[in-house]
Amino acid sequence: MKLPVVAAAFAAAFIATSAQAQDVSAGERSWNKCRACHQIGEGAKNLVGPQLNGLFGRHTGAVEGYSYSSANKGANITWDEAVFAEYIKDPKAKIPGTKMVFAGIKNDKEIADLTAFLKQFGKDGKKM
Ligand code: HEC
Questions:
Q1: Which UniProt keywords are listed (predicted)?
Q2: Which of 19, 52, 116, 118 lies in the 20 to 30 Å Cα band around 79?
Q3: Model's pTM, two decimal places?
């Protein structure tokens, strides 16, 4: 009879550990740095920058109706966690000529948290 309790405790510990590795609410605070230029979520529109729904797995320059620089459009990158981490540290180093004016986020933990926040949103802007 004790087994389910043990299993639940184990699951709780596991969830706590992964939440510590990537903290969505901290990522949401970090997203404040992007909000002047980007939207995400249901009904997200292109602003100064393209909407960022379903970013991971998306190709650079893929948002319809957004006027990318040729640098971004031609970067030929598929966004995954590793590429995104490199990019967001220093956008102009990863995509020379990008029109994204952003100094970058240098802290790996903050990048991981921001990634967790962004990953919640599917192509349609709904949380997955
Ligand atoms: C000052 C405005 C501004 C801020 C702040 C900003 N961006 Fe951008 N971002 C842009 C613009 C403009 C582009 C399009 C770049 C181009 O076409 O060269 C872009 C492009 C991107 C792309 C490439 C999208 C694609 O479809 O290829 C990603 C990813 C991105 N931004 C993520 C972020 C994140 C995450 C943040 C916050 C940490 C952020 N940006 C902050 C303006 C901004």
A1: Electron transport, Heme, Iron, Metal-binding, Signal, Transport
A2: 19
A3: 0.88
